[in-house]
Amino acid sequence: MANQQVNQVKPATNGLRAAKSLTAANDFFDDRPVYQEGYDERKNVVIRLVSDKNKNAKPYKVTGIDDVASKNNWKAWLYLAPVLILLVVFLLYPLINTIFIAFLDNYSYIDGSFDGVTLNNFGVIFGLSTYNGATEVNFTKYAIPNTFLIVFITVPVSTLIALLISVGLNKIKFLQKALQTIFFLPYVTNAIAIGMVFSVMFDQNGIINTLFNSTTKWIYGADRLHAYVPLCLYIIWSSLPFKILIFLSGLQGIDKQYYNAAKMDGASSNKILWKITVPMMSPQILYILVTSFIGAFKEYTSIVGLFNMQGTSAGSYNMYTIVYYIYDNLSTHTSFAAAAAVFLFVVILVFTFIQLYVSKKRVYY
Amino acid sequence: MTKKSLMLLALPAMILASCGTKESSSPASSTSKPNTSTSTSEAYVPKITTDTTIDIWSIIGKSNQVPFEKYIAAFEKLEPHVKINSTYQSTSYNGLKDMVVKGFPANNYPDLVQCYPDHVAEYLDYGKVVNLDTYINDATNGWTAADKADVIQAYQDEGTGYVADGTYSVPFCKSTEAMYYNADVLIGLDLSSVDNTINGGKALTETYLNNLTWEELFNKLCPAIVTYNNSLTAEKKIIKDFAPGTTGSGVFAYDSDDNLFITLAEQYGLKYTSIDKTSGTGRFDAFEKTTDADKTNRTALENVLKTFRTAAENGYIISKGSSENNYTNTYFTKQNTLFSVGSTGGVSYQYTDNFATGVAKIPHAKDHDQAVISQGPSLCMLDHNDSNKKLASWLFYKFMTNTDNATDWAVNTGYSAIRQSCYDTDAYADYSDTTASDKGSKDWLMANNASYVPKVTNDFFLSPAFKGSSTARTQAAAIMVKVLVTKSNDITKIDTWFDDALAACKLAA
Amino acid sequence: MEQAIKEKRPIKKYEDFKGVLVNDKIVLSLDDAGKTVDTIRRNDKIKNIVSTTFLYIILIILAVVMIFPFYWMIITSLKGNDEIYQTTQTLYPTIIMWSNYVYVFQYFDFGNYLLNTVVVAIFSTLGTLITTIIAAFAFARLKFKGRDGLFMVFLMTMMIPGEMMVISNYITVASFGWIGTDQTRTDAYLAMIVPFIISVFYIYLLRQNFKQIPNELYLAAKVDGKTDWSFLWRVMVPLAAPTLISITILKFMGTWNSYVWPQLVTSQADFRLISNGLRSSTFIDVDSERVSYGYQMAATVLVTVPLFLLFVIFRKYIMRGVGRAGIKG
Predict the structure, then answer these.
(1) C-beta separation of B282 from B509 below 8 A
(2) In what order do the strands lie in the sheet containing B378-381?
(3) How far is C280 from chain B (nearest CA, A)?
(4) Size of interface B-C (CB pairs under 8 A)
């Protein structure tokens, strides 16, 4: 590598079709002189080419260039200024407000009044203390388990399916465009329509039961185990298009050189998938995993869309989720809703931290 | 276009009763001009002298907006300084309540809002509802003694059924429940071969059906009908595809589970909910078991429900909750049931081409008085600390509910008229004239429905509304559904169901 | 490979990311014994055809599953209400009710809702694009103190459910004077657009893409003395164009489907968006809460078509992928 000249690196001609973007980038570099690795006397800098494949190599300090880069410290804040203002007002302030409210007793957001600072809100939602003589059981009995189950079933499954579909879609030539469009359809279909369709399909006399010749109740009057089937299918189905979109986009960006080389050496498609494709797509995969986990923890609209109430029959809470509890108590018992929201926040935060930590060594940019 | 699609195009206008679709040449009531005064015809003196704007939020549907806008326009003519902004929100009643509550801290809420009593209880909790007593009892602008005697008492009672003293809501879109039945099959049905104690061994008549008790229904009529039905050949069956336990198959259908529970409690003289005005809290009497009176009440209620369970197991009764959450009128119109209890506001859903639908009172409890639920949203006034706005809002309401306007409203929307005098007007007489259309036609059903309502106004009862009463209603429905679907050995769990209901209600309070 | 050895060319070594040589060993397996090049080639071809067919079959089955609800939406829009409420569902309408669409055109205030939705969508998308680009750039490319911590804070704002944000944001927006019965159309638009301009969801996405743009490009530009700003807009943005187009379409669709917030902050039905219109009393009987599904689905289909066309037009730009350009000359 040491003697190679930079200008010998050519853009892969079959990987990216002559993209306008490439031309733009090339134009940008039109008047660029030739570089050679080593000490450039003219500009008094040392030029080293850092390859992104050498993950285990110690980072080279490129003197001169590194220093310039670090001087941009304060300018970054300029870039972020407008974003930060809006973020603080519309995203951060509600977050902090929610955390505050969780510790206030009997908060009423009509006039902002409250009875004092307390930890009891958390006690009530976890069923440790009583409110008005009754204990809240549905939160711990149903909302928390349901939420966790939904997260750990739907996110890995949908991510894996989306990955495989994207890889498959990328390979085929014949129906590629049509199939890509079809897989994006759920995103375009209106939520009302989707909810209605699923509840009709899984009706006792619906298509699913007709196809499999059974009379099981899937939605109304179903037991929890059966009710999870349409619920998970619904969530996975509606989350696939976005994942496929992101994965496909990422796949297109992988240089075909790698595939050609691997093929020449007879690597099996399995090996190609796991040793080349997935690592090259790791930024997208991480993004999808992190955001999907966050989204799945907040699951609520799918329950309403399918069941129209908190459970599979009137008065039942067996399909409760954390956000559903929050929604139910938002105006009448804001303190409890806020406590539940803070609990959810902490859970999601911990999971996200774990994910980001675990991914540090496995994501390649 | 097929007949079906023509009917569907008429769906939005389905509540529109006799006008425009009748063959006879009686004048269309929707074009009658609303009178500006109730009894005397003196010139109207505007009461508001400064420019005032009032906002009304409702979710009235497109077809019902027409008469409503009419009253607004007429009122603005009377009171030139008043401007009314009527906004029709595109959401459910609960969504509307949400909008109002969220709007309180931002000062974005209306002067008059369409609401259910449960919603008013919540607004009251935030201290935002105006006590209308001052306006109702006002010497110059209020309701006279004649007015107060005229407005149906039960509706006035609902306005005072809150934790605080005073009137906090006034009737607007009221309706009640009726028992719709398959007239072709039942009127003249002779069951003396099966059981000759029914109607004294004679064929069934309208009077008989109007005076049914639950005991008569479940112990005599339904068993007789089932036996009779089983003896018929397949083409002649009076109940199609009758099979106890199958979804939607039964003799009698009562659509709303919560209404059934609450009505039964009232009919059997048992307690459902109550308000302690001194402490300003509500009480869930039906589910409580702290005092001895509570325990007796609850046991009696449980026993009544057990009889319903037995009836359900025999295929005598179904409800929406016990039919996979499907509206029971769909089974009624297919002749899978012979009776269907539903809202008088939704009478058009009980219509079918296949047979004539009759209207009768719902069954009552033996040896007890009749009691029929009154339901539907009302109107309440929210406080903006502006006396002009409040007065203007009250005057508009008063105008909108004078006899002529109230009759006009009832005739055009299918809601019940709120004044006794409305039922005596010519317009209403036309509306409820059953002779004007062919038996079995939709107009005939509408007319029957209209003439039914005044017959039950004295049987109305109401439940108080307080924080948590809507949860009580949901739990009542839950218990009712469980009762109707459970098998005999599981009914012992009914005690736990009541306990769970109590816990849920207390958490919501 | 044998040819390479014959011609004494250096054998390229390929390593995977764990540093293990992929082509380390030349393995002669008994599998390949007794076969000619032709046989091997033919076997490979057959394997290829079989696996491709298999792939097609699976993809088509999945596609049918994906498309089914969409198909259901369309046939429901062509069915009469009676048929929809039947207990046994039909896979194809018995009578095709074009009258549903006629009714919708008559009673549904398309023009108004469409105008509002398009205006709000365009400005929201523009706002989001600009803020996302500069924020993602700052996080991906620039080094500054507290970068990772700040990014964590950004992520944290995603971890609170939307409902809790609604109350606070509603009061905030009201304090700007954008809400109330005297609300003008501009006020309504502002109230619907501004709170949602910042989307951490998309900032994160774009940051991942920006990070994939090779370091060499940036270092080269720096050495040349080009500013960050010009690098951002003249190199990075064009390279990440497919992602940006995805974000545009997704944000656009988000506005199309948004329902809760517009309902809350607008004081007149005139200012509302399409999703609000779809749930209005035009299609729902408010008292019994029965939905006229035929009409509602017809309106939904009409509303979905432009979105769908948008995607079809921009599909190939999205699917092009983030460019990993090499550097020319």
Answers:
(1) yes
(2) B82-88, B52-58, B112-115, B378-381, B170-171
(3) 4
(4) 104
If asked whether residues B331 and B385 sit together in one domain, one would say no
pLDDT band of residue B38 (cuts 50, 70, 90) is: very low
Q: Do B95 and C263 touch (CB under 8 A)?
A: yes
On whether residue B329 sits in a domain, the answer given is yes
Closest residue by Cα to residue B56 from B34, B76, B30: B76
What does the DSSP assignment read for B39-74? S--PPPPP---S-EEEEEEE---HHHHHHHHHHHHH
Cβ pair A19:C14 closer than 8 A: no
Answer whether A190 sits within 8 Å of C56, measured CB to CB.
no
Same domain, A113 and A214: no
**B372-418 pLDDT tens trace:** 999 999 999 999 999 999 999 999 999 999 999 999 999 999 999 99
For residues A355 and B352, what is the distance between their CA atoms, to the nearest angstrom? 60
Nearest to B64 by CA among B404, B342, B410, B401: B410
Q: Based on the domain organization, do B361 and B426 belong to the same domain?
A: no
- Asked whether the beta carbons of C204 and C155 are under 8 A apart, the reply is yes
Q: What is the DSSP letter of A51?
A: P
Which residue's entry shows tokens 């998938």?
Answer: A273
Contact C257 A191 (CB under 8 A): yes
Name, in order, each residue with C-beta under 8 angstroms of B370's C-beta and a sequence gap of 6 or more: B267, B361, B364, B456, B459
Q: Tell me the C-alpha distance between C316 and C293, whole Å.
A: 34
The confidence score (pLDDT) of residue A119 equals: 92
Q: How far is C322 from C247, CA to CA, in rounded Å? A: 13
> What is the pLDDT, as a whole number, of residue A37?
60
Q: Pick from A110, A135, A314: which is nearest to B481 by CB?
A: A314
Q: Does B122 touch chain A (CB under 8 A)?
A: yes
Model confidence pLDDT, tens digit, residues A291-348: 999 999 999 988 988 888 888 888 889 999 999 999 999 888 999 999 999 999 999 9
The reply to whether residue A331 touches residue B102, judged by beta carbons under 8 angstroms, is: yes
Q: Per the domain annotation, does A314 fall within a domain? A: yes
What's this model's pTM, rounded to 2 decimal places? 0.83
Q: Give the per-residue pLDDT at A66.
A: 43
Query: How far is the C-alpha of A156 from the C-alpha of A165, rounded, in Å?
Result: 14
Q: Are B153 and B239 in the same domain?
A: no
CA-closest candidate to residue B191, choices B232, B252, B233: B232
Amino acid B213 reads T
Domain C109-318, CATH number (from 2.40.50.140, 3.30.360.10, 1.10.760.10, 1.10.3720.10)? 1.10.3720.10
pLDDT number for residue C128:
95
A294: nearest CB among C66, C137, C158: C158
Whether the complex's predicted ipTM surpasses the cut of 0.90:
no
**pLDDT score of A193 more than 50:** yes
- Please tell me the total count of domains within chain B: 2
As a whole number of angstroms, the distance between CA B133 and CA C180 comes to: 29
Q: Are residues B158 and B206 in the same domain?
A: no
- Element spanning A216, H or E: none
Phi-psi region of B455 (alpha: psi -120 to 50; beta: other; left: phi over 0): alpha
Q: How confident is the model at residue A184 (pLDDT cuts 50, 70, 90)?
A: confident
pLDDT, tens only, C165-212: 988 899 899 999 898 877 888 999 999 999 999 999 999 999 998 988
How many structural domains are present in chain A? 3
